[in-house]
Amino acid sequence: VYSCEMAFRTLSNQGSPQFIAAKWLSEESLYHFYPDWKKLQRYAIATIYFSTGGDDWFKTSGWLSDQDECEWYETRDEDDVCSSDGRFQVLYNQGNNLKGQLPAEIALLSDTLGKLRQTVV
Question: Which residues does 27 contact at the CB level (< 8 Å), separation at least 6?
């Protein structure tokens, strides 16, 4: 369960994936133009990236770029990564060298995320 206390504790730690993701997001040039749901979505996905060793993933093309997060990667399946309104609905990262734990922030995607396939070592 994602709680405010947990969020405060992890965001206070400058070495945490959550702090690094929040810092990355706040420094984006378009940050102030994003609606709140998009800020949370980008934060959650960036936290997954930093929590699972994203810099060492096999496929990182586009991740954490200024591109829309729906275009950070493509799935092999026929599923669209995002819905027509831009909300994440599929997150596949099997066989991409993820290490560590999926962060609690994945719960921020729970309203729209329908499929999750992650292999974390």
Answer: none
Secondary structure (DSSP) of 52-110: TTGGG-S--TTTTSSS-GGGS---SSS--SB-TTS-B-EEEEEEEEE-S---GGGGGGT
Helix (H, G, I), strand (E, B) or coil at 116: strand
> CA torsion 81→84→85→86, rounded to 10°?
20
Placement of tokens 């922030």 in the chain: 105
Residues paired with 91 in a beta bridge? 116
Per residue in 28-52, pLDDT (tens digit) is: 999 999 999 999 999 999 999 999 9
Query: Would the pLDDT of 83 be above 60?
Result: yes
Integer Cα distance of 37 and 43 in angstroms = 10
DSSP symbol at 113: -
Residue 118 is classified by DSSP as E
Answer yes or no: are the C-beta atoms of 81 and 60 closer than 8 Å.
no
